[in-house]
Fold this sequence. Notes:
heterodimer; A: 87 residues; Ubiquitin-like (UB roll); 5 strands; B: alpha+beta; Aldehyde Oxidoreductase, domain 3
Amino acid sequence: MIGAMKLVYFAWLRERVGKAGETLSPPANVTTVGALLEWLKGQGGGYAEALKDLSAVRVAVNQEYAGPEAKVGANDEVALFPPVTGG
Amino acid sequence: MIKVQTEDFDVGVELKALMARAQGVGGIVTFTGVVREWSGNQQLAAMTLEHYPGMTERQLADIEAEAVRRWPIEASLIIHRYGRLEPGANIVLVITASAHRQAAFEANEFLVDWLKTKAPFWKLEAGPAGQSWVEAKATDDQAADRWKVTSGPAKRRA
């Protein structure tokens, strides 16, 4: 375990996961955004449904956009959401 | 200046307030985005804008700072609403003021293009066929890409 991190979900990702956010403690080998997404997807159910097409998923770590190689760890706020459509 | 709010805004009031804090201004560009009545062939009943509190303000402030870095802007304002909005309602206001019109026009277009692809907002449309999330448009990405610079002074790509 690398410690608890806060996950938040928006738009259809929130609907498919079935909650707006949660605190999770992924296994120790989950140290990057990419690994986190794969691990979450493997949890099945709403996660698998929400993350089946990762090209439609954007990630922010501590409110800054982050790519698959970006590090994640304890106490981080990791947000998952679709491409933005404001303006 | 950045404002993220549910309340409506009055363009005239905001324009006056901005002029009061701007100096040496010769041109002011105002862009207002409103909810369209029609989305494709569906008549919209309403649109609900969801956002990511905290990150939204941060992204908008970063985008505004980037515009100030690239153009001689004397004052600027971005207001973006969220929550339930009906057709015709204001969504976004972007005002840019500069000594000359070119900088004001370019900076305004830059701000709108960038906020559409970077600010964490999502539109949920409600119409006769039910509710659906608006999909991001490739044309919006292309519009934002025009403003990418690798080095040197900001120049809009042809």
